[in-house]
Specification:
Blueprint (H helix, E strand, L loop, with lengths): L1 H14 L2 E7 L4 H17 L3 E7 L8 H13 L3 H9 L2 H7 L1 H10 L4 H10 L3 H13 L7 E4 L2 E4 L7 H13 L2
Parallel strand pairs: 1-2
Antiparallel strand pairs: 1-3, 3-4
Helix pairs in contact: 3-4, 3-6, 3-7, 6-7
Length: 177
């Protein structure tokens, strides 16, 4: 009996991915630079590492809060990371032009731009962004990008040097690699 219980639970626990929370401000040029690490980690771990975008819009970026809501709408439409990456590639333009950039990126990706506009007006994603921001403050996120993996916070706001190696070290340990 205990053998069958072990057999039934081992594959499930082995299949559980390690969660990497990536706290980003979508108007932050450093977060754009961090995408290289995110892509490399995705390539190295595939489904064994669940990289979750968490929002931490900084007050110094006046369009970051709206950008976070737009990203949530992109996730609702099934293209959250594609939208996030495309938007981060245009941080300077977002700073200059504001919310029209949010809709332009949605249109370029073939998303429903009217629904994006409606989502920004009706605030349907406000609670998600506010909850992320509050949780970020609770885990002492002060700048972006910041990562949380295995209960450890890694701050990339000052320097991203060595972060990918540290994340890899923690992920390997948690995955038993």
């Amino acid at each position: 009996m205990s053998e069958s219980t072990t057999e039934n639970t081992s594959p499930a626990s082995a299949a559980s991915p390690v969660v990497l929370e990536a706290w980003f401000d979508l108007q932050c040029p450093d977060c754009f630079e961090a995408l290289a690490d995110v892509r490399a980690l995705r390539a190295a771990y595939g489904d064994r590492l669940d990289i979750q975008l968490r929002h931490f819009p900084l007050a110094k970026h006046k369009h970051a809060y709206a950008a976070a809501q737009a990203a949530e709408e992109a996730f609702a439409q099934g293209q959250g990371w594609a939208y996030t990456e495309a938007l981060l590639a245009r941080t300077a333009e977002l700073g200059d032009r504001g919310e029209p950039v949010l809709l332009a990126v949605a249109t370029e990706l073939g998303l429903d731009a009217e629904e994006f506009d409606t989502a920004l007006i009706d605030g349907r994603h406000l609670l998600t962004v506010d909850a992320d921001e509050a949780e970020g403050k609770a885990v002492k996120v002060t700048g972006t990008p910041t990562y949380v993996i295995g209960g450890e916070r890694l701050d990339g706001g000052q320097s991203q040097d060595g972060l990918r190696a540290r994340i890899t070290e923690i992920a390997d340990r948690l995955l038993g690699a």
